[in-house]
Write a structure and sequence with these properties.
The protein has 130 residues and is α+β, with helices and mostly antiparallel strands. It is built from 4 helices and 5 strands; from the N terminus they run αααβββββα.
Length: 130
């Protein structure tokens, strides 16, 4: 009985790690994150002044500049995009999205830009000047 109780979590974790390894190997065989999500990365780089690829891993890529960056993380059936802004004037902000891998890069960019604009409009509309 104890063998089953101990073996089940070990097999579950092992299966997850094997699936993650297969996903990362598939991304690497296609040329890495910079190639797999090339269109989305180019759109984000072109839309943000002084933006560049900061770091690339087997299943993630960071693009941005010193105070602002996007993290694109590949999961099994979707991708996450995380927007981080750390600025002395506006403080620290983070927004996160999850998209299907089949969503068009233009749609992803449109959603991100509209949500960021809406977030900052709500955040700073409370500021009143006297």
């Amino acid at each position: 009985m104890w063998i089953v109780i101990i073996a089940f979590p070990i097999l579950t974790v092992g299966w997850f790690l094997f699936d993650k390894w297969k996903m990362e190997t598939e991304i690497q065989s296609q040329g890495g994150m910079a190639i797999v999500h090339k269109e989305l990365i180019n759109i984000l780089i072109d839309s943000t002044p002084y933006c560049k690829i900061l770091q690339e891993g087997r299943s993630y890529i960071y693009i941005g500049r010193s105070d602002l960056h996007y993290e694109i993380v590949s999961h099994f059936s979707d991708i996450s995009v995380i927007f981080r802004l750390e600025n002395a004037f506006v403080g620290k902000h983070m927004l996160k999205w999850s998209f299907s891998k089949t969503d068009a890069p233009d749609y992803i960019y449109f959603r991100i830009e509209k949500d960021i604009e809406s977030y900052f409009n709500k955040k700073f509309s409370k500021i009143t000047y006297k």
